[in-house]
Amino acid sequence: MTLLSIILLPLLGALLPVYTERFGRTICAYSAAIGPLCALGILLGSSASVFSGHIEQVYIAWLPAIGLDLSLRLDGLGLMFALLIVGIGLLVVLYARYYLAQRDSLGKLYALLQLFMMAMLGIVLSSNLLLMIVFWEITSLVSFLLIGYWSDQSDARKGARMALTVTGAGGLCLLAGALLIERIVGSFELDAIFAAADQIKAHASYPVILVLVLLGAFTKSAQFPFQFWLPHAMSAPTPVSAYLHSATMVKAGVFLLARMHPALAGTDGWFYLVTFTGMATLLFGAYNALFKHDLKGLLAYSTISHLGLITMLLGFSTDLAVVAAIFHIINHATFKASLFMAAGIIDHETGTRDMRKINGMWKYMPHTALLAMVAALAMAGVPLLNGFLSKEMFFSEALHIESMGMFSWVFPLSATLAGIFSVAYSVRFIHDVFFNGEPVDLPKYPPHEPPRYMIVPVEILVGLCLLVGIVPNLTVAPFLQAASLAVLGHDMPDYHIAIWHGVNLPLIMSFVALAGGLLMYRQRSGLFAFYERKYRHDEKIMFESRVQFSVRMAQMLTDLIQNNSLQRYMALLIGAAVVAIGYALLPGIPWPQDFALTALEPVSLLAAIVLTVGALGTVLLHHNRFAALLLLSVVGLVVSLIFVRYSAPDLALTQISVEVVTIVLLMLALYFLPQITPNESGAKRVGRDIILATAAGLGMGILTFAMLTTPYQTLSDFYLANSVSGGGGANVVNVILVDFRGFDTLGEITVLAIAAVGIYAMLNGLHLPLPQADGDGRRWDKEPHPPILSVMARILLPLAILVSIFIFLRGHNAPGGGFIAGLVTSVALILQYLASGTLWMQERLRWRYRRVAVSGVLIATLTGVGSWFFGYPFLTSTFDHFHIPLIGEIELASAMIFDTGVYITVVGATLLILAHLGKLAQTSHSPRPPTSKAFSGADLNKGDD
Amino acid sequence: MEILISAVIAILTSCGVYLLLRGRTFPIILGLTLLTYAVNLFIFMSGRLNTSASTIIGVGDQYADPLPQALVLTAIVISFAMTAFVLVLALRARAELGNDHVDGRNSIEEIKS
What we know:
- By secondary structure, chain A is mainly α.
- Helix content of chain A is 71%, strand content 3%.
- Chain A is elongated, with a radius of gyration of 41 Å.
- Residues 924-945 of chain A have low confidence and may be disordered.
- Chain B is mainly α.
- Chain B has one domain (2-112): Helix Hairpins (Orthogonal Bundle).
- Chain B has 3 helices and no strands.
- Mean pLDDT of chain B is 86; it is low at 108-113.
- The chains are: A mainly alpha, B mainly alpha.
- Chains A and B meet through α26, α27, α28, α29 and α30 of A and α1, α2 and α3 of B.
């Protein structure tokens, strides 16, 4: 569990500074240091056991189904990196306390830094590849926020976006690579992956895996050609640059190379890809670093170059090369972090980072100057400093690679060349900044030493450079040994870190580099002029223009599909559905061979013909809307007959009553719409639509036939068996509705009520032109209520209500129920509206239909809630038999109350819709001649809403 | 019979989809209604063709599948609510836009009603 706490401490620590910021900066800094300090203590405490070769592991199942588990390990490599992350993190906390201006939020920076620290620790301690990638992505996201810390600056925003794009894309590649590895190995656990190393390397998809994983590593570690994001990330506050862009995040890529070394290295592909990428990066970075006038720009390119060096060493893959790579990771982190901090101090005290302005700082800040000079010399690889040791190892390894045959000389040559450049830019850093005359128009003058504690982190780091450089075996050797063991998987090669190996070729190369570098710096004026002429392009402008380009392409694509025509969207939608289902059906459906089709009945055939005539007629006559509507009602009638034929009396009753209501509704609405549809579709569009419609119909037909001929399986046996015993009703359809699936029904009547209320809202204040004549030009009758109809309707009303009550009561045991009864009642009442007019009904029936509909839903809900009081789940129903005098034995079920709710909702909603729409129409037939004032929204609002 | 039922559903779908692709609101509502018939029949037919069965326990010796029936029953009521809603939406659209085209534009001079 201690392992887990190493990660959790910074995570919890991230919350603290946000809270303590209000108590002042010093307290905020202390609170930010608590988490990392504890983590550091734990790490140091467990280092002894790691040195002895023990690997501490923690395993907590997280999402075992996808192989993502909280699986952590602390081996030598993890320990070394974790110490680096926490140690430099603490120094950065101290440094940032003094660096950040008063107006910037220190708490926010600390919170983000610790969040980042958590993610980095997660990467280096993960024992599960997928878990590592999760942390990997967190570092990309947090670094986006950190680079864009000064979010009001355009440079910061663009730099952050570029870094996120590059490293995020790399992260996706890495994820893809990890998934491929999992397919071979069957696990994301590192131990399993290492054990299956030979299997992975022999697998056909090994090259793909290698390239994907390397893309992840190279983007993160700013390797050529992905190096361009790192210089632009320098718009971050300097503590962030010191932490992310020298010591930690950019090291995540090379860490990944080291981590995956046992599983992926040792092949030609690895050697060529990694070595040459590293070499290109090494030279590119070193060359460009010399010519940057920006202090941080120089350091950024130098970082790129050193990352290339580490990558190249890991590409060599010999045991000693791996040791050297790990050694250089530590060394580079220490001297580069201190240099960034020194650069930040200079920026802080002079107000600029331009080396053409900052000169002669030795006079103004000798303390800082001394420290920065020592660190810069370590960067140059001068003896007695740590940079020298690992660079010597690099030279020596470059000399030993012979796998390129007679071309092997390119390695020592490029190593020496990069060495020359690195000496040259280090010397430039020292000479330009601290000597070289007087400063030129500094924004802050005169500069002076920074606050005392701002230098402390630099002192500690430079002290480490010296200690490691002078007594390597007493300081860094055990860490290195443990880390190399973790990467190589076997005992350390016989190696010896020493300052003096005698006069040998690597030493000569070092001196060539030193002398060449000094010489190059002397000749700088010519070189600078050459660089200015030859090499002037800005990656940021290129990147931004590409971003703009993709935005434009996206816009074009959107405009292509989205042209604001609903008619077209509908065609696209249906076309897409046809294509998708057609594609799925294309391989053919395995038709059952032995399926016996039922015999064709003449009556059914006749019904089908009537239906077809009705449907086709609706389409053909749709320009004459009234005729189409009449034909549509024929179709509806035949559909209800189909329900009768195939043993569904409940459905037939529902369909026929809904049919009546729907057609009345459509007729009412048609009154306000044009009576004729203009013939405006061109032949092309009609042709397209016919093809789409035929395809859709054909698809549905095939699907239906396939379904009907598939062997029949159902879960209805449960309902049939339990309907009487469990639901207390013999009509299984009704019992399903009010009992088994009562919750669905509750949802459905709610939708019904909402639709009704929505319609009420839409009709509110609606102004439509009043038609004076029908489609054929005949004027509407002023007396719309023929007496015979009125009288008949009034006689029918009590009968219809009686029928609906009967249908409702018997619903539980025979065809019927709340839905049907509600529709019958609605039809009876609508008939009164039609026969006698809205005004006549308003005087007699003063219901507010909105309340009726809502109270129905309420009754149904309360019935459901009621079962809670008896300790049962929502909507549990009960029933019992009662003896009532005169009537006899009767069964009452609580589901009846629920069904009453359904009934009331249906009546309320249906009448709310129709009565309001009807009023819109009816008011125009008042005896008064209609004027523009006769109909208005006000009429609608008063009365029976 | 299976072929006949499949053909009926196919015809209803085709007619519905064709009307759905028209530009004016009223034919679209007609199309929607036809499509509703097709879909309801389709769901209903998943219980297969039972000519002389019943869903009442104790009546008859053969039972029809009650589950698709219950599904379709609510579907019928819901589709009524939907049709009504779309219809009133069409009325409102005509009042707001002055025409009954779904895209809100009147390419041909509106025919006086």
